[in-house]
Design brief:
The chain has 545 residues and is α+β, with helices and mostly antiparallel strands. It is built from 17 helices and 18 strands.
């Protein structure tokens, strides 16, 4: 049960992490961004205390934001630590990727340096990975040029343990995104000051234009100016070198396009929903070779000095690496690490997405059974039927949900969502006799054979142990029985593992999903059918023996 809950815990943490990252880009000023970075560690990373130490122009680091403790904020905020002392900390720490961890057994040598710190005394750890109050965990933040922007220091994990591999990766990714947000906040501040200067100093228009040009042309991330209104509305008027490099297109070619021409078709609606002023969107833009890159767009409106036509200034940030990390984390949370199949949580999510709480009206509820185990040779037993009564109040003609209804007969047009519960026979003996490595190889091969035997839009998931589930929509009762037989026959041939051939059998139970049922009820129905089939086959085997 604990193993099955781990994906839920990771998914919950991932959602909080995504929310914290999203909030990084909503802050309006550098100060707000710094505080949002600190708050995000506490809200999204399950630490009780976080401090953001920002590099000042002179190179020293100042405590710019604190979250999680009013006492720590009062003691540390605004205090400065020398660059040399910080470099010493970053050099002596254990390297956890880009993170630096200094255990309490070494941190005592830092008590007398000038870096502001907050800690309390505590007893020695009771187990290897227990967090000690004097442990130090540092997450450096860098600019796109590799320069140190600052350091996030964290303390007091809520679970009392040092972060594991997944937690370290999440904190490292958050620090990377926080560095981008701080760089963007500084860039936005510089650009806003340039715009104010353009409005207030009309007599120095040429000087202000040069200042803006410098900020635009040499920005580390992509920048574009597009027309607003008129026949050329949306056309790219001007692009900087960073955007040209990102899209692998020369500026002369980009001037023939608008962002609507370059956006991925699936993201066009997202682009159109983005408001002109202050709008932000994450979407994919096409490169010259036909591939797509994930970017973050942020818009602001610019008017010329004579109050003439307005233009849209768009900041284009490359977020491809961050998106790849997000997809990897999401995949890990929703898929089985051994077989690569959707895991139990993902299976239940997909099944629940098709069902609603309100059962559909059935002309003959008595015929709507959950199915029968494949291979029993007895057809479908109506004694095990599950009825779906008409909902209270009768049928709602305004309910536009396409209800999932189990098939009531064998007609070609009578289709439903079949749930095939598969349990391997003889798998435990393989594990006991040849070891878990052999058992893992068998599970991987069974997963491959099941996936090869279904349609592209069907779902094959590993429920846990040697149990698998297949979701196959649009099947009649005979179709589902035939599918179960084909899959069982696909599993039966020998599986070669390290030069030996092993065999496993499979028992299948067929359940039918229907609105008004929960995912657990549907899976239980299929599990019961599988159990009935296995018991019937066992009795038949004993009689034959």
């Amino acid at each position: 049960m604990e193993a099955e809950s781990e994906p839920y815990v990771r998914l919950t943490t991932l959602r909080k992490l995504h929310q914290s990252m999203a909030e990084l880009n909503t802050a309006r000023s550098l100060a707000d961004t710094l505080q949002t970075v600190a708050d995000g560690v506490v809200k999204g990373m399950d630490f009780e205390l976080a401090a953001v130490n920002l590099v000042k122009p002179d190179g020293d680091l100042v405590v710019a934001a604190v979250a999680g403790s009013e006492g720590a904020e009062a003691m540390m905020a605004g205090r400065t630590g020398s660059r040399a002392a910080w470099e010493r900390r970053l050099a002596m720490g254990e390297r956890w990727g880009e993170l630096r961890f200094i255990p309490y057994t070494e941190a005592w040598v830092l008590l007398d340096d000038d870096v502001p710190q907050w800690h309390t005394a505590g007893p020695a750890p009771r187990y290897a990975d227990e967090w000690h109050p004097m442990d130090l965990l540092l997450a450096p933040m860098y600019s796109s040029d590799g320069d140190l922007l600052g350091v996030i220091s964290v303390d007091k994990p809520r679970n009392g343990r040092r972060p594991g591999a997944w937690g370290r990766e999440a904190l490292q990714m958050y620090a990377f995104q926080a560095g981008i947000a701080i760089s963007n906040a500084r860039l936005r501040a510089n650009m806003q000051r340039a715009l104010v200067r353009l409005e207030r100093e009309q007599h120095a228009l040429r000087a202000s234009e040069e200042s803006f040009r410098q900020a635009f042309e040499y920005a580390p991330s992509g920048m574009a100016i597009t027309e607003l209104g008129g026949d050329q509305n949306g056309r790219l008027v001007r692009t900087n070198d960073a955007l040209c490099r990102l899209l692998d297109r020369p500026a002369s070619a980009l001037r023939r396009y608008s962002f609507s021409d370059l956006v991925h078709p699936e993201d066009l609606a997202t682009l159109l929903r983005t408001s002109a002023e202050g709008g932000r969107a994450e979407l994919r833009l096409a490169r010259r070779d036909g591939s797509y890159v994930w970017v973050s767009l942020r818009n602001s409106v610019v008017a010329d000095a004579t109050d003439g036509p307005r233009f849209l200034l768009t900041h284009v940030e490359d977020i491809e690496e961050r998106k790849r990390h997000e997809l990897q984390l999401a995949h890990r949370a929703s898929h089985d690490s051994l077989t690569g199949l959707p895991n139990s949580a993902e299976l239940r999510a997909r099944l629940s997405a098709r069902l609603c709480d309100k059962p559909a009206p059935a002309p003959d509820a008595a015929q709507m059974g959950p199915g029968v185990g494949a291979g029993s040779g007895s057809g479908f037993d109506p004694d095990f039927g599950d009825g779906f009564p008409e909902p209270p109040g009768g049928y709602d003609p305004y309910d536009h949900h396409v209800h999932v209804v189990p098939p009531s007969g064998d007609g070609a047009s009578d289709k439903g969502l079949a749930v095939l519960f598969c349990d391997l026979d003889g798998f435990k003996s393989i594990n006991d006799r040849f070891g878990h490595h052999c058992g893992d190889a068998v599970l991987i091969e069974v997963a491959r054979r099941l996936s090869s035997g279904v349609r592209d839009n069907d779902t094959v998931a590993r429920l846990g142990g040697d149990e698998f589930v297949v979701l196959a929509d649009g099947l009649g009762r005979e179709d589902a029985a035939d599918l179960a037989v084909r899959l069982r026959n696909a599993i039966l041939p020998p599986i070669r593992v390290e030069g030996r051939a092993v065999r496993v059998g499979a028992s299948f139970g067929i359940g039918w999903a229907g609105c008004g049922m929960t995912a657990e009820e549907v899976l239980h129905s299929a599990d019961q059918r599988m159990y009935i089939e296995k018991r019937a086959r066992s009795k038949a085997h004993r009689r034959a023996g």
